[in-house]
Hints:
The protein is α/β, with parallel strands linked by helices and 193 residues long. It is built from 4 helices and 8 strands. The longest helix is centred in the C-terminal third of the chain and has 15 residues, at 144-158.
Amino acid sequence: MRKIQTQGVHHITLTGADRQTSIDFWEGVLGMPFVFDQPNLDNPDEGHLYFDPGDGRLITIFTNETRTPDPARTPTDPGCVHHLAFNVSQASFWQAAKRLEARGIKHSGPKDRGFMDSIYFTDPMGLLIELASYRFEPPEGCRHADVMIEAHRIRVARGDHHIDREHLADAIELLVERRHQSLSGDRGAKNPY
């Protein structure tokens, strides 16, 4: 028996409202360029809109002109999607509440998640959307996931409740020491003063 090795999210497809509502939300609120448009090949009554969330992957939306926005929260039963999280910079994150409020969109306000900041609101069809902003940049040659697994190991070893900034800083230091060479025989912390 062998695994089927995935290499990232290819796309996520959601059921949206009508075409214009979908474009207005995904591009007009979240800034995702509208990059492709065709019929839903499995249902001729629906459109299939494609948006770039910023990393070249795709968010696609099935639209139907008979569907209207429904702000009732989507189900969160086991097996259902709880929410979608999109990465934003710290600069964008700290503008999000004001920009949502300008449109009359209710939101959670900023939430401290230790390793990131989050804000939550729903799309026009009641799907919970999270804007998530990491509080760190990974070292050159590393990914956010590399920092997270090291920070997790540090947190567990220290018996701490959740990952916070100190764990991230120590994880980044450890990754740089492991992955980046130095001519120094002793790379430990020093005080030259």
